[in-house]
Design goal:
It is a single chain. The protein has about 300 residues and is of the alpha/beta class. Helix content is about 30%, strand content about 20%. It is built from ten helices and nine strands. Strands 3-2-4-5-1-6-7-8-9 form a nine-stranded mixed beta sheet. Helix 7 packs parallel to helix 8.
Length: about 300
């Protein structure tokens, strides 16, 4: 995960119904906050109290929480929600950030994607870094890291592909038997993409415990017979003895006879180079008295 935290830009955390990703998101937020970064959280799916649960007071004091869960469209007119709804909240997140490295956590991109056009969301994500890089037209600062949680099973290949094309890193979560694993794809400028698979666990204090290496494959049961993949096919891949004999004795169309093969391999002394060999088919209707019968003239 150190390679993920070393990158700036969009980091896509993709979870599924088998393995949730909010715990990993909170673990990465804790590492960024303890590293001295400003952390802005755009909370959409859970309340602020539930999201802050598990962080100690030191980490909670470093988080700037933007609440879209309680009143996303500002219907109560309390002035707490930013104007423009979810898109406006996303656009003003980095405007409130000061100098120095900034991490923006989106919980979640799926919530935003289900309420915003995909193109508008992608444009807002691209603008996050530019807004902080040139605050008020000043000198360029350090780009923003955006941690976006995405529930991949809720979206089609189009939105997933659009967000994937923007991401500097993609972390796909999976797990078996209580063991979580993360497949990490990193895209660095002017370098080939790198792949890495790590095993990890989230401790009760939201610390990240990395075991490293790919998950172990389960050992096959020696007492269980192997599964035949051709068992339930609608066609047969094997030939019986009678079918194989019939196949071997079949004469293919346009197959050279032994006489024609000998004539081609050992041409006679007076045989022209352009001699045409014709072997009639079984269905040819040749009439020597009317050779043009097939022309219907």
């Amino acid at each position: 995960m150190e390679s993920v935290l070393a990158l700036r830009g969009l980091v896509l955390l993709r979870d599924s119904v088998e393995w949730e990703g909010r715990s990993l998101l909170k673990a990465l937020i804790k590492k960024a906050a303890l590293g001295g970064e400003q952390v802005h959280v755009l909370g959409c799916e859970v309340s602020e109290e539930e999201f802050r649960e598990g962080f100690d007071s030191g980490v909670n004091s470093r988080l700037v929480y933007h609440d879209l869960f309680r009143d996303p469209l500002n219907w109560s007119q309390t002035g707490e929600a930013p104007p423009g709804g979810p898109l406006g909240a996303l656009q003003v997140t980095c405007k409130r950030a000061g100098p120095g490295p900034v991490t923006v956590a989106l919980d979640s991109l799926s919530w935003l994607l289900l309420r915003l056009p995909c193109a508008a969301l992608c444009q807002a994500l691209c603008a996050l870094g530019r807004q902080h890089a040139h605050p008020g037209g000043g000198p360029a600062g350090e780009p923003v890291r955006v941690l976006g949680l995405l529930h991949g099973e809720l979206h089609g290949p189009g939105p997933r592909g659009a967000l994937s094309s923007l991401a500097q890193a993609e972390v796909t979560l999976s797990g078996t038997g209580g063991q979580a694993s993360a497949h990490i794809l990193c895209r660095r400028p002017r370098q080939r993409p790198s792949h890495e698979t790590l095993c990890f666990s989230i401790l009760p204090d939201l610390s990240l415990d990395l075991q490293g290496g790919p998950p172990l494959e389960p050992h096959p049961d020696p007492h269980r017979p192997p599964v035949d993949p051709t068992t339930h096919l609608t066609f047969n891949l094997h030939l019986s003895k009678r079918e194989r004999e019939a196949k071997d004795s079949l004469t293919l169309p346009f197959q050279f006879s032994s006489e024609k093969q000998q004539a081609l391999l050992r041409p006679g002394p007076g045989q022209a180079a352009g001699h045409i060999f014709y072997e009639p088919d079984a269905y040819d209707d040749l009439d020597p008295e009317d050779p043009d019968d097939d022309l219907d003239v």
